[in-house]
């Protein structure tokens, strides 16, 4: 029996999903946002009827103080073309 080529397709599953998520992501050791997922969840994806302003301000401050602000593709630190909360 011969194996068929997948033609560059990846089989669905957790390994393929993680590979897609982590592809080309920088390794930002000691990033200020580590273990702060609840703060960023509240800032970026607030519950309905919730005011996310406090969480947004706190997350932006955390990003501004991070040693990886300029390298992080997801930084919330205010940039010249962005408005702050």
What tags apply to this protein structure?
mainly alpha; 0% strand; disordered N terminus
Describe the structure.
- The structure is a single chain.
- The chain is mainly α.
- Helix content is 34%, strand content 0%.
- The protein is built from 3 helices and no strands.
- The chain has helices spanning 14-22, 37-44, 53-64.
- Helix 2 crosses helix 3.
- The longest helix has 12 residues, at 53-64.
- It is flat.
- Residues 1-6 have low confidence and may be disordered.
What is the rounded Rg? 18 Å
Helical percentage:
25-40%
N-to-C series of helices and strands: HHH
Helical stretch count? 3
The major β-sheet equals: none
Structural class determined from secondary elements? mainly alpha
Distance between the termini: 61 Å
Overall pLDDT confidence = 81
β-strand percent reads under 5%
Strand segment count: 0
